[in-house]
Every structure is written in C-alpha cells, then in structure tokens.
Amino acid sequence: MPFGERRWPLGGEAGDEVDVQTTADVEVCERWIRDFRESGRDCVGLDIEWKANTVKGQRPEPVATLQLATETSALVLQVLYFRPGECAGLRDLLADETVLKLGVGIKGDLLKLLKDCNLHCAGGLDLSKHFKSTLGLRIKEEIGLKRLAKFVLGFDLDKPKMVSRSDWSTSSLDEAQIKYAALDAVVACKIFQRLRSCDDFARSAISLRTNYYLRKSFASRKLKQQGWSKRLLVFGCVFLLIWSPSLVLAGFMTPNQVQRDVVCAFWGLCSLLKTVQLWGTEMCKYDKPLSSYVKPDAQELFQGVLTGTALTGLFYLALWFFGFGTIAPSRVGGGAGVLRAAGLGILSGFTKELLFRGVVQKELERDLKPDGKAALVLGLIFASAHLSPHGFVGLALLSLCLSEGKKAFGGSLSYSIGLHSSLVATTMLGSSAYVQTYPAPVWLVGSSGQSPLFLEGALGIALLSVLRLGLQNKKRRKKRRAKKKR
C-alpha cells in the first residue's frame, strides 16, 4: 500500500508518539483538516519535499509532498497524485492568516507551493527569526531546524542526507522518507509551542544551551580555518584533558604499578574514543563519528587479517628457507599466549588506525592535495610517533601501505585495521616462537639477528613494498571498472 496510517515515537522524548497519515486522497485530507479545526489550534507545522536535482542547472522539480502537523499528529500529502486545489479545506487552511504556518525558511516553501500547486498561503512564521527575536540573539545566520530542536527541545533530530535527497516523486514512499517528512513538521510545531509556553526560568535554560552550542559551533568553524598542525594540536589537547584525571585517580585507587597502568590504559582508550566522537561531531558533522570514520565491513577486515598473517608467515618462512632459524610453537605459551597476542593486536590495530588513518589523515587531506602528499606526511608522523629510529623506514612504509589499503577499499578502515592488528599479533607470536640456528645479517632482518624484527630489515621492507604495489594495482583496477560502468 503506497498510502496509510502509521505511528512513530518522536526521538529524544520517551513515550511521545506521532500519528502519521500518508495519503493522496482528498477525503482523508479533508478529515484531518476538519479534526485540526475542531481542536481549536492556531498553528500548524508545515514543510514540503521534492525530488532533488541530479544535473547542475536543471530546473527544480515540483513539490512532491506537503506535510502538515501538530505536536502529536501529521499529514503527509503526496500532492503529485491528487489535485490539492480540489481540497477546499486545504485551500482555506493555507490561506487563513489566523493559523500560523511554522517552519524554517517558510517563505520559500510557501512561494513554491504557490508556483507549483497554485495554493495561496498566508500566516507564515519563520521559526529561525522567531527564535532569535524571542531570545534576543543578534546573529545574522539562519538557525536550521536540526539546531533549533537541539537548542529548544534538547534532542537530536536525525536528518540523513540520503533520505533528504531521495526520490520523493514515487507513490510508494518508504518508512524512512515518511518519518523524515512527518517529523520535520511535527518538530517545527513543538518548537513553537515550547517557546510560547516556557517561563522565564525555562527561557534562561534555553538561552544558556543555545549560547553553549553556538559558541562551540563558532569555535569549530574558527578551528577549521587553521592549518592541519594546529587542528591536530587541539585534538591532542582535548585528548589529554579527558585522559589526565586517570593519572591522579589511578594513584588513589591502587598502589600496584601494574594495576595503575591498566587503569590508565583503559581510561586512555575511552578518552581516545570520546575525543574522536567529539571531533567527528563538531569538525566533520558526523551523526555517528566512529562508524563514519571506520566504515566497518567484516569481509574487508578478514582480508586484512589474512594479508597481515601471510606477510609475517612469508617473513619467517624466508628465514627458515635460508637456514637462519626455525619456529617452535611450544614457545608461544599455548592458548593464553595466542589470546594475549590477539588481544594486543586488535587493541593496537583498532586504536592506531582510528587515530592515524581516521582522524589524522582526514585532517591532512583537508589541506594537502593531492591525497598522496597527505599519505606521505602521515607516514612520517606515524613513524616518528613510535620513537623507533631503526624501524623508521619500515614504519613509514607500513603507514603508506595502510593508507593505500584505505583508498583501495573505498575509504573503509576495516582492511587497514585487520592488516595492522594481524601484523602486531603474528609478529609477537613469531618473535616468541623463533629459534635462531644461524645469525642473520642485521641489514636483512634488523635488530641483532637474535630476534628478527619485521619492520627493521630489508626483508620486511621488501614484503611491504610488494604489498603496496599490489594495493595500488587494486585501486587502479577499481577505478577502471568504475569508468566502464559509467
């Protein structure tokens, strides 16, 4: 059924539900408007949607849906499938100056209704202007509905771009479209009613919340204008600010050094996740920052794990083949040793990739074009951060491989996390199980030859170079396939 009646909870306010009717039937429209008139209300939330243009300079599509709403009820009219001019109740309601039509940028919506549907509208009230005048805010910029919902109602209104730019001309709107359309009009009505009914104390609370979010938004805009080094410095300061209390609390909680280290490490992980969440929300406008940075994909993660395991396996296989050493599995420490290595590998791979390939690389790419330049600078930062002079070249090359992996898999960090995690875990296991039978050249395996290190010698660097070439080739093949599809 393309049309019907549904009920949804309004996000952010438990138990607050909205009855939504989707229709192209004149009788249903007349009935909803009659109920609205009988309720004695003097305002209605109003919004419109139309199919987004896909070609630059294309003539705007006509209005596809018209939404009318109170705080608890919404009507989504699919005006492409009936003649709104034939609905006398709708014409009278829109032309009635005594009934306020609420929305952000409402003037443009009312003009488009007149142009596309020949519906004369009166009584429009722009909520952005009304909000600023009510609170005495002296700012020129328009405050959108999403921010008004945050300031006045205190909850996040979900407005995904993939829904807003979807095909609104279809007769069978999906659930996401109907919910998106209805809640916009409902929230507009709720914002107006909250501003109308709040006392001085509530108005002061709204003003404080608004000033806080506006100052934070202003600060993030100013920060975006700074260079990447200053932005990353601020990111580091925010992380340290969140993490530093653990240094004091750990000392009070336990006298044991190991336990203190565990507390600080766990707090550090939580601090990093929180900092990334704040950064993604403010600087990148992500609704779900962690998911947006990582773009999780189980298959790509598995491919990364296989690649890292294969690289380490080839490294130790070459050492065995040339008679430098062998692997003694009994030295790993059984299942506990494997679990310890796997846990440390996952922790190291996830946190470092989220930080370096997620946050740092994105900030570098804002300023450094082309992307290859950003990847090169990131490689130097990544290698320097590990404080390992002997492994500097290998670490920088590993970073380039991880960045290539991100590009080759469409910006997802899943492959890079899998590759990084498995390299850390299998290298730990290999170092524990390796038994030297003949000293290997330091230039070949790094260290002193007693315990070969994957990233310090020519052998590991050669394997990483081959991997990078393979990832670059994969990226080129992917681009060619995309061009053929066009």
TrEMBL record:
CDD domains noted in UniProt: WRN_exo (cd06141)
GO molecular function terms attached to this record: 3'-5' exonuclease activity; endopeptidase activity; metal ion binding; nucleic acid binding
Alphabetical list of SUPFAM superfamilies matching this protein: Ribonuclease H-like (SSF53098)
A Pfam family of this chain: DNA_pol_A_exo1
Domain of life: Eukaryota
Gene Ontology CC annotations of this record: nucleus
Keywords: Exonuclease, Hydrolase, Magnesium, Membrane, Metal-binding, Nuclease, Nucleus, Transmembrane, Transmembrane helix
3'-5' exonuclease domain sequence ranges: 20-200
One GO-annotated biological process of the protein: nucleobase-containing compound metabolic process
Transmembrane segments: 232-253, 301-325, 337-356, 376-401, 413-433, 453-471
Record's subcellular location: Nucleus
Xref: InterPro entries: 3'-5'_exonuclease_dom, 3-5_Exonuclease_domain, Rce1/LyrA-like_dom, RNaseH-like_sf, RNaseH_sf
Protein name: 3'-5' exonuclease
Biological source species: Chloropicon primus
Lineage: Eukaryota, Viridiplantae, Chlorophyta, Chloropicophyceae, Chloropicales
